[in-house]
Fold this sequence. Notes:
The structure holds two protein chains of two kinds. Chain A is an alpha+beta fold. Chain A is built from three helices and four strands. Chain A is about 30% helix and about 25% strand. A nine-stranded mixed β-sheet of chain B has the order 5-4-7-8-3-9-10-11-12, sandwiched between helices. Chain B has a nine-stranded mixed β-sheet with strand order 17-16-18-19-15-20-21-22-23, sandwiched between helices. The longest helix of chain B has 18 residues, at about 145-165. The interface of A and B includes residues 14, 47 and 81 of A.
Amino acid sequence: MENEQRWELRLYVAGQTPKSILALKNITRYCQENLEGRYSIEVIDLLKTPQLAEGDQIVAIPTLIRKVPVPIRKIIGDLSDEEKVLVGLNIRPLPLKNKP
Amino acid sequence: MEHIASIAKVSTGIEGLDEVTNGGFPQGRPVLICGSAGCGKTLFGIQFLVKGILEHEEPGVFVSFEESVADLTNNVASLGFDLDKLTAEGRLRMDHVRIERSEIEETGEYDLEGLFIRLNYAIDAIGAKRVVLDTIESLFSGMQNEGLLRAEIRRLFRWLKEKGVTAVITGERGVNTLTRQGLEEYVSDCVILLDFRVVEQIATRRLRIVKYRGSTHGTNEYPFLIDENGISVIPITSLKLDYGTSTDVISTGLRPLDGLFKKGGLYKGSSTLITGTAGTAKTILAGYFVLGSCLRNERVLLFSFEEAPDQTIRNLLSIGIDLRPYIASKLLVIHASRPTLYGLEMHLLVVNKLLSEFRPKSVVIDPISSLVSVGSALEVKAMLVRLIDTLKIHKIDALFTCLMSRVASGSDDETIEAVSSLADNWLYLQNELVDGKRQRSLLIIKSRGMEHYNDQVPFTITPAGIGFAASTIPTVSNSVNGK
């Protein structure tokens, strides 16, 4: 395979808000479609662990962080623009025929 | 000043500002501090927190949107603010919110809940009562959605209010607005404008309270000073003309001169002006006055605008006035600086600071005319009025020398015009050539509330000091009433 790179993503949310739910839904779908089996998404709810906000410099909610591969990248918002998210995370979309 | 106790207030931690604001900042409400770059906003915020912690046991949170915590800590260390220690003690929390536009991609809807959570966590962790946000407008350079940022910042200010913390929010001065992003629309309880102006190469920092809802406040522009103790504001114009007066008399430091006044000296707490052209012994008379004060064991503060302290001491020593022991015993402090070093208000601030630190009984300013080079006649007059009022309130014996530009005895000089009406006593010195000889003389132009000698009195200066010819040592009996 040309791409054995694993993707470690972290999604910061603050409770079950519509924006956060939408963001998680979106990123999960993009990953399933493009990074099947090569990704993990960790969801951090700052309402439960507020002390984690400072370390990753979280200001906006939701914030998606690409921890691996480095360098770290951040995308804020509900992630509704697929192309922007994929470009932002530097994920090369698979050819169309592999999509369901 | 009368306090109108309509809203609860907290001390600002800035010397003098509590007076100007009639008690401080509104408790539990946001305060906007705006000003251009380098005007002291950040220091203002840090001092508000540090003094709150040290003097009022109110823990504080500092959220920096610009400088890193390490930079901030280093920058204020020279002021004696030990941020690391306060942080370690759990009384201060610093958080650097760093937003790099290049690192962040935006897609879809978001809010600033992350910032709220961070702030909330920091406040609750130490039970903070004070919060500083410096400078929240940086968010606008880090994120694109301006409309959303505005709505969120508005929500943040509301939230801070609900949280019950007294918050200082700094903002960069805009072109036509107080702050670039118009934060003044959202923070409407108390807005303070800091200004840093350079006029004729002399820089002055000024502060003005633009608005303060629910409270009376001073409306003037107040000069403020940033020195090794931080920021201080002197609310000079709050002075009133209601100081007490004394009927006790002090010596001028020169016995024969005392004899020219009916009561044998000057009234305590009065102000004395000595005018004369160059070389008429003004500084020497000032030297006697300083010596007289030292001999009474009273602290005296000498502002020298033309000579270095050593030079003043040496010159006075040559006519037998030895001030060295009093410098050593700290009874005398000589503060020498070039008048052009800073603006008029700064001079006044420095005087005020030294007055409160050193608490002198006498103050000598030699020469007051030097200050004219720093401002217009109107400004100088306003400054001198405030200065003399300040000295009167503290019941300080004041003496000013003033260099006259012309030999004419009339008050054609603008400084003299300004000071003479304020001074209680006015001595006029002359140095004329008569038959190729120098003829020095002294004339009391006025001495408020005291009979005094009315003629010109010739005198000489020898290594033994100022001497009045024996035949001319007057008695007050042949004088007329002085006003």
